[in-house]
Design brief:
Blueprint lengths: L14 H8 L7 E6 L4 H10 L6 E6 L4 H12 L3 E6 L7 E6 H10 L6 E5 L4 H13 L3 H10 L4 H12 L3 H8 L2
Length: 179
């Protein structure tokens, strides 16, 4: 295209999109991650960068690396839902909708065969909210307010946010914060 050559797409089967559609996971927003590197450190950094990802994630994986990839994903993502889509658009096509824990158990007992597209659910809003709550649950009200102020939120707005987080009135938070 940069050289002025006309580029024309040719319709055809695309394993990643077919897997996404077949996965029964949310399709409105997704990220295609391709193959993970075999370099252990790079692989861990890549998965770490996706721990908070809320979009559905798509990965390609070869059968000989599948089990270690599933274990690495379990370590970084927890026991999320996954669709393992194998040999898409071919005669031995298979789509397994399960969890990371169950997929690991299955492939420990039955060695995988064929090329895979892994479709993994993104982090849920409930999990994000739970982690945030766990972050401030053991804080004092003052520390909680200061946490928001350090993020650049003015005091009045920080008091409102803390009241909302804790499910109490802004007046209660103000009274405790100003003690």
């Amino acid at each position: 295209a940069e050289e002025g050559i006309k580029v024309v797409p040719i319709p055809g089967a695309v394993a990643g999109i077919n897997a996404l559609i077949s996965s029964a996971l949310p399709t409105q927003r997704f990220t295609f991650e391709g193959f993970l590197t075999v370099n252990k450190r790079g692989r861990s950094e890549h998965l770490s960068s996706l721990e908070g990802e809320t979009r559905t994630m798509l990965f390609y994986e070869a059968p000989h690396k599948l089990l270690s990839t599933l274990r690495d994903m379990r370590e970084h993502f927890g026991n999320r839902k996954i669709a393992l889509c194998r040999e898409l658009t071919k005669i031995h096509e298979e789509i397994l909708r399960t969890t990371l824990d169950d997929a690991i158990k299955m492939y420990e007992e039955n060695p995988p065969r064929g090329e895979f597209v892994l479709v993994i659910e993104g982090k849920s809003a409930e999990d994000i909210e739970k982690e945030a709550r766990e972050g401030w649950e053991n804080m004092s009200v003052s520390d909680h307010v200061e946490m928001y102020i350090k993020k650049g939120i003015d005091e009045k707005e920080a008091l409102k946010k803390v009241a909302k987080d804790r499910g109490v009135s802004k007046r209660d938070i103000y009274n405790e914060y100003k003690r």
